[in-house]
Amino acid sequence: MKEKLYEATPLTQGDFTPGIEGPACDREGNIYCVSFRDKRGIARVTPDGKAELFLTLPEKSAGNGIRFNKVGEMFIADYTDHNILRVDMATRSITVFAHNDTMNQPNDIAITASGILYASDPHWGNSTGQLWRITKEGKTILEASAMGTTNGIEVSPDGKTLYVNESVQRTIWAFEIAADGALKNKRLFKKFDDYGFDGMRCDIDGNLYATRHGKGTVVKLSPRAEVLQEINVLGEHPTNICFGGKDGRTAYVTEAKAMRLVQFRIDRPGLEWQRWRR
Fold first, then answer.
1. Could you write out the DSSP letters of every residue in 80-109?
2. Is the pTM of this model over 0.85?
3. What is the C-alpha separation between 205 and 208, in angstroms, rounded?
4. CB burial class (10 A; 0-12, 13-18, 19+) of residue 28?
5. H or E element: which one contains 274?
6. Active-site residue numbers?
7. pLDDT at 101 (0 to 100)
8. What CA dihedral angle connects 93, 162, 11 and 85, to 10 degrees?
9. What's the helix, strand, coil split of the chain in %, to 5?
10. SS in 3 state form for 75-87?
11. Which among 100, 151, 153, 98 is positioned nearest to 128, based on CA atoms?
């Protein structure tokens, strides 16, 4: 029987709050999400949908985007305490990897193959935002200011392009990534006339999957910004997406209206799933 692609089914139910975000997969195929039971709880979800509390963030912290690096460390955007947190997965110890008081509220993070991080930093009240580069040593560098409401963020498979969207402005921008990780030559990648954006991820071919907050879909865009698919995710408020499963071809989407993870199969593996298996 031919496999059904781009058809969402529920994975979890209960225990999450409307702040459910993240998500990110480890090498064993577990999915990690924020806002498990409360804004400080980080969940570990097995591929069959069983969720448990993995760790609790410090009292002043609240998680948003999650990423892993090539050695398996977890990074969490801590939007209330202006941090990027690092988690040792073996001991579950949490340290502040990067901090800057001039951040608004770090929202989502992207990572290059070499370990450079980028963080979107929206100011929701003003519909503005910033974009940060965070070196492998944890130094924060402001790469772009006076942007719209920066949110979803991702690096292309060749490491040459950083995508960042603006939720309120319904726009996706592309930056060229220089050899040292600095950003230049900002250009318009895609603009929509309706509904906002949230998290984004690439597959190994450079197709960009972007969550459409308010529309209840994930749109698949080619590297030339062509709409290839639009997938219904069974809820109006998808917040982010990652790829995993045994072959990297399962998409996991956090959806805030029903406060759950949904999943659907795709045709090609996700970028980070392939990258971190090497």
1. TTTEEEEE-TTT--EEEEEE-TT-S----E
2. yes
3. 9
4. exposed
5. helix 271-275
6. 198
7. 95
8. 10
9. 0, 50, 45
10. EEEECCCCEEEEE
11. 151
Helix (H) or strand (E) segment spanning residue 270: none
Which residues are bridge partners to 94 per DSSP?
Answer: 87
Q: What are phi and psi of 272, to 5 degrees?
A: -65, -35
Dihedral angle, C-alpha 13, 19, 25, 30, nearest 10 °: -30
**Residue keyed to tokens 């070499």:** 114
Q: Which two tokens stand for residue 198?
A: 């949230």
DSSP string for 113-166? TT--EEEEEEETTTTEEEEEEE-TT--EEEEEEEES-EEEEEE-TTS-EEEEEE
Please list, in sequence order, all residues whose beta carbon lies within 8 angstroms of the beta carbon of residue 154, skipping any fewer than 6 positions away: 110, 162, 163, 200, 201, 202, 208
Phi, psi of 4 (to 5 degrees): -85, 125
Q: How far apart are CA 246 and CA 227, in angstroms?
A: 27
**Which pLDDT belongs to residue 278?**
57
How far CA 47 is from CA of 37, 42, 100, 155, 246, in Å, comes to 20, 16, 35, 25, 9
- The predicted pLDDT at position 1 comes to 73
Give residues with Cβ within 8 angstroms of 125, minimum separation 6: none
Give CA–CA dist 116/148, Å, rounded.
Answer: 23
Whole-angstrom Cα distance, residue 160 to residue 4? Answer: 33
Residues of the chain where predicted confidence (pLDDT) is lower than 50? none
Q: What is the pLDDT of residue 2?
A: 81
Q: For the chain, what's the residue count? A: 278
Structure tokens at 205: 């071919």
What is the helix (H) or strand (E) element at residue 240, kind and residue range? strand 238-244
- In sequence order, what are the beta bridge partners of 122? 129
